[in-house]
Amino acid sequence: MPDEPVPDERAPDGDTLLAEPEEVRLVRAEVESAAAERLTFFSDAVIAIAITLLALELPVPDGNTATEVLHSLREHRADYVAFFISFAVIGAHWTSHHAVFRWVRRLGGHVRRLNLLWLMIMVLMPFVTKVLTESDEGSGFVVRFGLYAVAQVAAAVLFVLMLRAMRRYDLFRPGVPARVVDSGLIRSATMIVMFGVSIPIAFTGEWAYLAWIATPLATWFVRFALRRPSTRRPSSPTRSGTVM
């Protein structure tokens, strides 16, 4: 008995031929989106570990009486102040990262590598914080202070490069608000300027810390200055909500 011919699975009108590439495209988009989400979750976990390590490095006050404990707290006040500074700095870096990466639909343009370098600096934060608090005397202060500031400048530069790659290679989801990307750029650019300027100021003494403390205020001022022209022209066209 001759073999019966195997029916052709392709529809005569070519619907199956068109449906297969569409299915592959959807699967590929799903895989790429999952990869972007995994990178975001991984980054959040690393940030959480970095912040936890900051707390673990804090010295525990010793003493048997209230006076001795308070005296020990005063002796280690530089460590506690440095913890709050580093917590705020890591929080600022993560805020920009979280706000932007939730709109990333796929990876590309070396974003993965740039993000790993950015995370490397985040996990080094407990180390540079410890180095910063070793001593406030002598010329070594400039080196310790400069090391901490350079780390923040490098992290901000890496984030700006990630944003640039996301725009260039169209990695955002449709409908991403322009303010999300703009806020990340403003915050990172302000940190680059303020921490960069603080390095030469460190040669004059501990006044350089004021540049770090003033960073949130400088960020707010830049945002306010950039927002003012649009509020004066209510009749102008509405700004597009996407960056593509």
Element-by-element helix/strand order: HHHHHHHH
Question: Gap between N and C termini, in Å?
Answer: 63 Å
Unreliable stretches? 1-19, 230-244
Give a quick account of the main beta sheet: strands, pairing sense, barrel closure.
none
**Overall mean pLDDT:** 83
Please give the share of residues in helix.
over 70%
Q: Helical region count?
A: 8
Return the domain count: 1
For the secondary structure, the number of strands is 0
* Principal-axis shape: elongated
Structural class by helix and strand composition: mainly alpha
Strand proportion, as a percent range, falls in: under 5%
Rounded Rg: 25 Å
Characterization of this structure:
- The protein has 244 residues and is mostly helical.
- The protein contains 8 helices and no strands.
- The chain has one domain.
- Helix 4 packs antiparallel against helix 5.
Could you list some keywords that capture this structure?
single chain; 244 residues; mainly alpha; disordered N terminus; disordered C terminus
Brief account:
The chain is an all-alpha fold and 244 residues long.
Question: Helix and strand layout, with pairings?
Answer:
Blueprint: H1 15-56, H2 66-75, H3 77-101, H4 111-132, H5 140-168, H6 178-201, H7 209-213, H8 215-231
